[in-house]
Amino acid sequence: METRVNDKTKPRIHAMRAARQGSPHRGRIPLTSLERLVDIWPQTGDIFYSLALNSEDENRIMIDLAWHTTVTLRCERCLESMSILLSIHSALEALETDAQPSDENQDLWLLDRGYIQIDQLLQEEILLNLPLIARHEPPCDIVTETLEPIHGRNPRNPGESNHPFQILADTAFRKT
After folding, report:
1. Contact criterion met (CB below 8 Å) for 61 and 15
2. 93 pLDDT exceeds 90?
3. Cβ(139)–Cβ(77) under 8 Å?
4. Burial class for 70, CB neighbours closer than 10 Å (0-12, 13-18, 19+)
């Protein structure tokens, strides 16, 4: 089943009904429609997802979620913009607010009157999977040029040392 979102509708799935049907839900949601993320930083593009629900019994619904998107962040080293591809697969247990989890180590998602709000679920997943510190790999050019002299190498002339004690070492052991 394909789910698409526009500004007027919020996608939601009745968890037990979808678990009984067993068919996966696939869709695309614009990142601009995820309000909590737009408040943090403006994004463009879409998040693509596949959501499958299954139920072993009436009280336990498992969510199998796979999604991917590209987000733009600011590198903490050079402050330049950078794109990060997030491609995640998650397994969650869906619970009503008064239910007890079947496994204390299982990640949980609280249902909203029996429904899964897809946009809210994806917002949480994105926030949980963003890097704590965004930075280019390999290290940014500006950082390499700035930090290399500190470590005793001249980035413009690798054979030449910029170590501050090198002059003392050269003069202290010279025999006159």
Report:
1. yes
2. no
3. yes
4. middle
